[in-house]
Design goal:
The complex is a heterodimer of chains A (405) and B (117). Chain A is mainly α and 405 residues long. Chain A is 72% helix and 0% strand. The radius of gyration of chain A is 33 Å and the shape is extended. The model of chain B has no long low-confidence stretch (mean pLDDT 91). The chains are: A mainly alpha (405), B alpha/beta (117).
Chain lengths: 405, 117
Amino acid sequence: MWRRYGDAVYALFVLGGFVLQAAALALLTWSFIPAASRLFPSATPTRALLGALLLTTTALLGIVGFILGYYLIGARREARRDAEVRAWAERWTGVVFGAEAPEGPLPPRALEGLLEVRDKLRGSGAQALGQLFERYWSRDVLIRPLRSRRLVKRLDALDRLARARLASTFFPMLHATEGADARTRGMALRAAARTLALYPEGPATDEAQDAFAAALDDERISTGAALETLMLLEDGCSGVAMRLFDDPTPRWLRWAAIEAAGRLERVDLGLSIAALVDDLDPEIRAAALRALHGIRMIPGSAEDRVRRLLYDEVDFVRVQAARAAELLPFGSIASRMWEMLGDPSWWVRRTAAEVVGGHGATGAAMLDWAARTHPDRYARHMAIQFLFDGQQIDLGTAERLRSVV
Amino acid sequence: MPSVLVVEDDPTVARLVEMTLRFGELEVRAVGSVAEARDLLAEGWDAIVLDINLPGTSGLELLRELREDLDVSTPVVMLSGQRHDDEVQRALAFEGTTYVTKPFAPEELLEVVQAAV
């Protein structure tokens, strides 16, 4: 009902609107009473009109009172709650740094405060707060609301679990991903991913990663949601991504795993990603090449394969191959880059120009040479445009070269 | 005792950073916005811990001001929720800048700041 900003103005607007409506209704009723009295000499219609007016006015005032009361009480309660949570967060922060822990049992706000601080920490601090949680509460406090029939309660529970990131709550969270409601499923996956990101090292991690990879393999999850979830795994991404690289993982999920590994710069997955550049699916080939570019490393065993993909039949694979080839010695790709400047695809020509241009003075000299002498006119145009965009030649030179080509 | 200016709008994170650095025997002053930080820049800090996402003027903008407009070379430790954020990469392009991701480990933050001062 309330907005983040301008709620006071909104409340006044609602109040003004209702008061005007009530006044207009009163005026209307009052003007009709004489005419109604003449038509119906008995007093019944007048009483009915006055009664209707009174009822409507009372209802309108009741609604206004409720809205304003809701606002005032809600805002005060929210402010008091926030202050209590902040005070507890401050207290738990002190405990992390050696202050004495409070005596139990503790109020619900203490749990909110603890989760607020734990959400902001990793390492020893988060570990200490995890132990404090177990000292004062059981995991059921967090898990029980997941079984609620009310969606809001389930989502609140998942929000708390995502902030708590307790290994002991991982599997119940994963269980919530099997539900029918898409919002609960998505939030449960993200909460589980955040928890898995901080999972303690050990054999239990393997089991958790297996289960998480299996939970992601659900056709109700979109590719974007899978990618976003995998990104939340951060350093814990490698174990899950490895499990998703191979068949029979569906193509969309393999793509998301490769993409996440590249974006998270998982150098430890370099060899596994390099093995995917030969995949039959061009989307997977392109994703693997983009990931290699993302981790800034092409394993020696994959260098020739990347060079071969510069000749791939699919243009977007050639684009990604050119980007990845940036990491190879320039001498080993220069002649192919020269050819690619005249590729039928504009995107490939542009990428080739960027790769060549990224190789300092040598690249600039090659582009200048291409602008003047490349046998393909589109290659000459691209080289001129790239040099002009990079302010390596002025407008006059660009126009002169263009007029020649 | 080396002094550190902390610019962070989330009160819980600001308090945690403050206590972490005090635990490492550093003198700390925490503020919640770039405007407040600007007023204190002249005080000669040994390091600045700067949240990248601040309301209004971003941490990255303050870093740019420090390095390009004011020519201040004080080491800066950026705090960011996303390690692979473009803004982090742009921040790291400025000399004397490192970063710590949120959520952070107090021991890691302390190590990075102590190395910087």
